Prior knowledge:
Elements: H1 2-15, H2 20-25, H3 38-55, H4 57-65, E1 128-129, E2 136-140, E3 168-174, H5 188-203, E4 206-211, H6 215-228, E5 234-240, E6 242-245, E7 252-255, E8 268-269, H7 270-278, E9 284-290, E10 301-302, H8 311-314, E11 319-324, E12 335-336, E13 339-340, H9 341-352, E14 356-358, H10 359-373, E15 379-382, E16 395-397
Parallel strand pairs: 3-4, 3-5, 5-9, 9-11
Antiparallel strand pairs: 1-2, 2-4, 6-7, 7-8, 10-15, 11-15, 12-13, 14-16
Amino acid sequence: MEDNTRLRLLFILAVLPLGVTHAQMIRPPAFAGGVPGMAQMQSVTMQRHQVRTLLYREALEELRKNPKAADVPECLPGVKDKSALCLRRPEAALPSVQPVSADLPEAAVKIPAAGPDITAQPAVAGKAQLTTPAPQVVAAVQATPAVPAAAAQPAAAVKTVPPPQRRRLAVLVGNNGYTTPIPSLETPIADVEKIAEVLRTRFGFETRVLHNATKAQIVQAVNLVADEIGPEDNVLLFYAGHGYLMDDTQMGFWIPVDASVKTAANWISNTDISKLLQAIRARQLILVSDSCFSGSLTREQKMSAEGMLKSDEILRRRSVLVLSSGGDEPVSDEGKEGHSIFAWNLIKTLDASQGITPGYKVYSNVYGQVKKDAAQEPQYGAVVSAGHMSGGEYLFEVQ
């Protein structure tokens, strides 16, 4: 293992003199015999980050001069132009506690000591084309039977009003194809396709999958969710693609496929990501980010299993969570069965879930498995700036 680690380090040092473009486009040899020691991996990570910093140096210099260079303006009041590149304004803030109509058990959500059993589930729901701003969008919607109109009742009868149906909607972005000199990635599209399948078949989500999305297409897709979704609904967003964290300001960014190394205009900042989340009114909201340095999205408030509320109490609160594939480090695009290390373990964890599983349990299981395979550490935290409330948590509920 040590010889292979030295080979990998020598490889990175050797390609640096060739120029940033060449270094970025060549994949280092894989580690043989498992995960290297932490010191060796940190050395590799530092070298990779130095190469990326050189690659983005002009865009980074622009951000240092103008920290708002990547910012998206807020949409004008009352204007919901789907083609406009702007951020939806959040509507009136939700009260801290809301009445909830959900068929969920009263028992407290607890974190089991043992991992869940894996049970095969039948596949449901086909795929259908959906008109969206994305260049390649595959929508898979699980049809919900219409609720029949209530039959006429005698005047003295008490009418029962059925509870509103909670909608589950997932938007997943997988970015493989970048323009040179930004290197392409191998797994994001396969990752989002498989995760979308699991969300449809096991959790009853409608899914919208975007392939190789630009900044405008990502923002517009999330704005559309903000337009459609109400407080009772459940939303999951997933991003897989390049990311970057500035060393000096500690500001993180997503790098969409139309991003440039010369300007940050088409980057998406953590600040704007928080605003996008804030505009979605759903009380159950989670963002999963599989990109380098995505842990910066979880810094506002780390989550734990302590003091977990009952499921019905959780659903009365606004919950805005982020599950990231790593912390403040590059993450692996190599993995298993054509998926990244993070996505592969997330898929396995969701496939094994039973009943109602809190997000922290999903994170805990993924964290333990990823740590066995790679020197990256998934993170889980709440976005208070987007309206997360004390006691909130995201619940994965198998249908």
